[in-house]
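Here we describe the complex-level prediction in full. Unlike the single-chain runs in Section 2.1, the three entities below were treated as one system.
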Amino acid sequence: MISRLSAIALNTFREAVRDRVLYNLIVFALLLVAGAPLLGQISIDIERLVLVNVGLSAISLFGVVIAIFIGIGLVSKEIEKKTLYTILARPVRRWEFIVGKSSGLLMTLAANTALMTAGFYAALLIDQRHLGRADAGLLIAVYFSALQFLMMTAITLLFSTFSTSIFSAVFAFSLFVIGTFSEDLRNFAALAHGITKWFSTGAAYIVPNFASLNVIAQVGHEQPIGGRLIFFNTLYAVLYSAAVTAGAVLIFERRNLK
Amino acid sequence: MKRNSTASVVAVVMLLTMGTGAILALHKVETVRGQEATLEEVLYLPSGKTLKRISLGYSSLLANIYWTRAVQYFGAQFHKRTPRYDLLYPLLDVTTDLDPLLIPVYQTGSIFLAQRPPEGAGQPDKAVELLEKGIRENPEYWRLYFTLGFTHYLDRKDYKAAQEAFAKGSEIPGALPWMKAMAARMAERGNDAGTAIALWQGVYEMTQEDSVRDSALKHIASLRVDAAIDELQQRVQLYRTQTGAWPADWSDLVHKGLLPGIPVDPTGEPYELLPLGSVQVKDPKAFPFLGELHQ
Amino acid sequence: MNAIETQSLSKDYAVGFWKRQLRPAVKSLNLTVNLGETFGFLGPNGAGKTTTLKMLMGIIFPSAGSATILGKDCLDPAVKQKIGFLPEQPYFYDYLSAPELLEYYAQLSGVAPAGRKDRIAELLARVGLADVGNKQLRKFSKGMLQRVGIAQAIIHDPEVIFLDEPMSGLDPLGRYEIRELIQSLKDAGKTIFFSTHILSDAEALCDRVAVIHKGELRGVGVVNDLRSATAEKSEVIWQGAEALAAVAKYAADSHVTGDTVRATVSTQELDLVLERLRQQRARLVSVTPLHGTLEEYFLAKTAEEAVRA
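The structure predicted for the assembly as a whole is:
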């Protein structure tokens, strides 16, 4: 089982690495981070803040874009191209396929994030000429972004098991946006009455809660993030992703392929 | 034919358990963050104008979101032991930058700002600033002048400014005639309970916000009681002038023909007659705004 | 134990806007394939061949009935170890090279890591792809992809091999090579399930065939039997066109080219015709008994109306 899972994961990773679109994205992102200090020159005193904001936002946004771009095709592309046929004829369980693909995408995201974070810190180093404790705190924002990627991967994988490209992409991106505003959704649910209240409360729990994972502003202003928050956010992201992936497995197990 | 039912069963179990776990974990996250979660980022509020530019045409939607946040912020602070409303004006300012035509923000927001704590933020000057901005952006909306006059009159006690507000508002086409009447009353009487009641009734009608309506009703009740007490005390004084002694009981006044019956307050409790002719309500807690007008 | 066995295997597709109507693609198929035999699964396009194969592979799920391979349910992962599948017009991960693809598949099929590389190289040579090196599959021609397809079907040395139109896209040389390959697998004792609409291939390689049409099994038979079923005629070729008149009564389908005549004669009258030709001083070129072709059997079975209503 492990060898099959790792084979599928590594193959997925390899596919992403050989996909030229990914390189364009990464180059663009790194350019953005490199250009941030220039932006900072325009507004005095907040040069570091601009660099931090642009850098961390780029890491977060690009990760999500990659998760969506690759995620929506994870399963659907294999079905479209019929490459799945020869896979399923082998002793690969359907659930192994799902978990393997998901792991491959997560590996890709991890690599991408590491690369961009390194670039980010390089830019910081160039700008500040040294790195201090406050800069270490920025890693928490990166970690929380990674948790977001975890959840987005699970979501796009789920869509990939039953839907194809454009529709999945739009839907996944919408969920990301709503997830960012999930706090406001919850506020809305609190103020609503009757059926609307039930509906919006349900939605507020099903939609991924990215609001509590957006800490870029805080780390930018060197506000500390509590350990308990880190723990529970991690727990939430992991459990949410596991649940959604289980859903993907459920759908894929029963699906008649073309 | 055996499908892989084991995998499906495991998947269902995982879906349910992990899903429930996720919801519980989320609950914990929210608790740890506290209610003002989103507002932490609001501490670093960008300027409304910048935000409008960034929002790419969705500024109206964003304005709605910020208004909701402002209301939540106000509500959250309201329930604290020591509320602090520092962010209220900035929030309302951003909201109205994003969508200057969102009238309820000016109307209800200014009430939140103007009212004395604990009912509101106790920042009537800020309220005026907000309303004047609203008037700049919506010059044909005469009701904003009403709220402006209301704020000047009741919260700032600036009767001249109140009169100017009502007067200007009355000149806008479509303004209801009582705006002129109000302008006149501003000029005449400074501390008139009747005027105050009329103003609060106006507020009650113009807003949908429950807390504000509630407040308006309470104010009106208290004002009525104030007025009633004034009147009753006058009658008691009259009794003393007529008989040379303070009345012992309401029935004394009734016998003297000064009152038709035992006077009761809006909650149905009889007013209390105190030894040296002063009158008060049985349960002052039911009327939180008593005596406000005279402060 | 049978290599493959299906019991009332059926597949219906929901069609129509509201997905209410059912279109049967495979109707209650009962088929048995013996160990070690090469079994041809014949039918026109759209007959249900590929649908049946997909059900056997677990790509789609049957609406009714069941199937076993090597005694186990066809969906049992344990049995997947022992089967190989070449789909029709296969696609593979085009960003991989041939060795990488085979390495991946070998890993998934549980081939031991030791000696994998050698095995892959050997197999690529065997299918005629010895010098593709690290070229990415996206640059392969159709024929080359087909060979890769066969390679991946047998990399793990399965006992039962399923081939769906294995000759498609190959030039004559390619077809010859693949036929040889299949023959060698046959000689090694493998069971081969061979789906095709090209009858000559089936005739050359298969022990038994089944004919499927419109989702139904129309007939099953041993190829040799079917062939000799109608060996009642012979083809006679001679030189001496003027002799034709003497045997015209018995010679059907006669063609004259220059001085050479080619005609079909029934076996009963063969001796008579030969005697007459000798009398006419015609020069005999050849006498060939004609076996009935698979084509005739096939056409007969697909022309019939359904056996059951």
